[in-house]
């Protein structure tokens, strides 16, 4: 069920639609009419373009917004490196950190809360591929924070778009373009460059982030499903313009740039956008609104039917990142082994669990706030206890995943694991294979020799 049903009063106002062209004014008349660069913009504001794609990107892909603000984003002192020895989320490039490329199936126990840090310092890169300096690939982060960001700080990532999946706690996000409240079972996307500040109104938070170093997320094509279904465009919500007015106090702008942290001072608030229009903006989506589609005859379909958002590579149908969910749903397939099949995938699969239990792993080792990684061609599938139950189940219609939400970041890229992800976090389970697949028993019943025309030898 949706988190944001009609009975829950929302703290902030939104405008609805995915990829829509929005206009929003916190002060009526702040957007110039019929021009982007009038000699004298309304109310003495500055206008500023924020480009999310190359100027010359095809019209259908082009993303940008025009911001009407009290002072331009460039009005700050030069950036200085901050925490250069500790803040590095771009392994390989600066040689302090390196990727571990390993074929093992990996599973992590729930990641710890950390109440001592704010949003910026809560970001732990666990896995990824590519390089933000080349605008290729993705980074997968775990976040765990217990402190509000300083009210005089704003953060942005020049490296990519953040797809944020909270698992615990509430994120109150003030962005340049307005405010968004994000709770578990909701997600939000903060595109590259947008400045924001995260408050934690209900205490500690924890969750997952996919940072997309190339392109942007879009809704998957629906093919024969038709014009509605899966995540519907109107359920995506963008903030309305909201601004602070402060040109007296000192603020710090924090930038994540090639995985490193930089800081610059400025003597005015970064949150001074009075109005904006465009199609480059942060947005949120309530996973409870996903219209889940599945087999109503037989067989287990590909999980692509559960794709919420996709970011395509240059090869259509092959994603740099798919965000896929496994919501509560009815399984009715007849004569079918209903959980996921055993498989090896040319794509890599990183999974997390927001709450409840995932129907492919009923053995107990895949827990909320934990994770798993099945890399390119790393074999996986239901654990032995799930196989046993599902092979003998009475195939009545059954609701799976009640109160549960698992998700997958699926990528065509082989993902490496960081030193933190493999060792420092101390959450990798050493009994994943032993618990999941090694206990599987052969059930092969050898037919009579006449039934095996080409022969085979029993050892
Ligand atoms: O491995 C997993 O649990 C994810 C998954 C689910 C599914 O229903 C089919 C394929 C797949 O990779
Ligand atoms: Fe899989």
Automatic annotation (TrEMBL):
EC annotation from Swiss-Prot or TrEMBL: 1.13.11.5
Obligatory cofactor(s): Fe cation
GO terms, biological process: L-phenylalanine catabolic process; L-tyrosine catabolic process
Active-site residues, record numbering mapped to chain: 300 (proton acceptor)
GO cellular component: cytoplasm
GO molecular-function terms, A-Z: homogentisate 1,2-dioxygenase activity; metal ion binding
Pathway: Amino-acid degradation; L-phenylalanine degradation; acetoacetate and fumarate from L-phenylalanine: step 4/6
Pfam families reported for this sequence: HgmA_C, HgmA_N
Residue stretches making up the Homogentisate 1,2-dioxygenase C-terminal domain: 289-444
UniProt-annotated binding residues for Fe cation: 343, 349, 380
InterPro entries attached to this UniProt entry: HgmA_C (IPR046451), HgmA_N (IPR046452), Homogentis_dOase (IPR005708), RmlC-like_jellyroll (IPR014710), RmlC_Cupin_sf (IPR011051)
Region: Disordered, residue numbers: 436-459
Parts forming coiled coils: none
Superkingdom of source: Eukaryota
Record keywords: Dioxygenase, Iron, Metal-binding, Oxidoreductase, Phenylalanine catabolism, Tyrosine catabolism
Family: Belongs to the homogentisate dioxygenase family.
Protein name: homogentisate 1,2-dioxygenase
Species name: Acrodontium crateriforme
